[in-house]
């Protein structure tokens, strides 16, 4: 019998382990109440496949069974997991989601072999020590944002990331689908968004100031059926997908496809192609009726594809230079009686805020959307530090905390020469572990506005899944514990205990095939030559 008690994220309470445990056998059955079918499928396809267990259909109240129960007196995502020698395993969830998170804990208790896709020791018996675990998340929004615009991640990789999120009890996938460098979702009424907007001719290698280029075309997109598959796969794992269409900045790929979306009275937008470098792009959407109608069309298709409550409209980093020069934009400012271009941006975002609200959805945007007033239901992703989140919470808005200084996983993990194309400042595993989503200055009522936290993975310098893994892990494990577990204040957090549990977690990640950054630093194949260039506000790379 193998056992693992080093859970990540840490559960609320564990009684035990006792000396008697439960051993899984070929006739160990699986039974669940109506509503738990998804977790039954998940257990058979993961645990069953990894350990060579058929997990036949069981009966309520029988011995030697994994039983999945619902108890609506528990909080929705809470669960209780009990292991006894005679009965087996009982997972009781406050909802089907709670049952699913309990199943994730069961997999961790079974050890690294349970994270494989087929048995490597078919004659081995797997068991779990007798114990009772009570657990519930701290926050309802435990997010990961993946930028598939700067580098496209084919569908298979996205499904894999949903599995990795589920293994860490994360439940919101923020899907950054559009940017200057690529448009990644099929929109049937506007085929050029993907025909033209999803490919770029070449790609800047390294930082934007680097003199190097990767001279091969890069691109790809998800068809609407791919998106339906991703959303369904996420739903089976109790993950909500929040799509982001970034407006009115970060839009050059769309303008390259449909030049009339840009500020045609300022530049020749026909000359624009999908952007091949990084940074903040001056080519933003024109604030015209045509642009509004176009994006209403985009969002109409998006609402059909993404059933979740939240739709992200970006709103970050929209330079106003073209609007200052554009007679069309200035006429709109005058017509609406606005003070300046910042208010024009608010008007633009406000249009979609109302449009989405009227359709029963809630707008989410980066904290720049605060600059000029917001509708009541709008949610703010606080990325430029905590300040936007504090302002938003005080104004009665819900907030997701994702301050770049703490949870931008593209930032480098260590000083020195070895980090591959290092971005910005050092954010170690311990730094992420000591990230606190709720700023001290909020009152209790305001703190209740913090829906949760999110780690953001921007992929300018991550051209494949191995690079994404390297930047994301192990730090996502620390982030997951921050978002799920009831940790003390940052200075009091027991990082040594987290590291002790990580020693049990790395073999799970190995079994899953995650190319994480080892605690001792990058492996030779993970090292990349540093490239010239100075990142935004940070030291030169390799400094
Ligand atoms: C952002 O990092 N521009 C949201």
From TrEMBL:
InterPro entries: Beta_hexosaminidase_sua/sub, GH, Glyco_hydro_20_cat, Hex-like_dom2, HEX_bac_N. Residues 139-486 form the Glycoside hydrolase family 20 catalytic domain. Residues 520-543 are annotated as: Disordered. GO terms for biological process: carbohydrate metabolic process; glycosaminoglycan metabolic process. It catalyses: Hydrolysis of terminal non-reducing N-acetyl-D-hexosamine residues in N-acetyl-beta-D-hexosaminides. It comes from the Bacteria. Its EC number is 3.2.1.52. The active site is at residue 317. Residues 5-135 form the Beta-hexosaminidase bacterial type N-terminal domain. Keywords: Glycosidase, Hydrolase. One of its GO terms (molecular function) is beta-N-acetylhexosaminidase activity. GO terms for cellular component: membrane. Belongs to the glycosyl hydrolase 20 family. This is beta-N-acetylhexosaminidase. It comes from Streptomyces sp. R08.
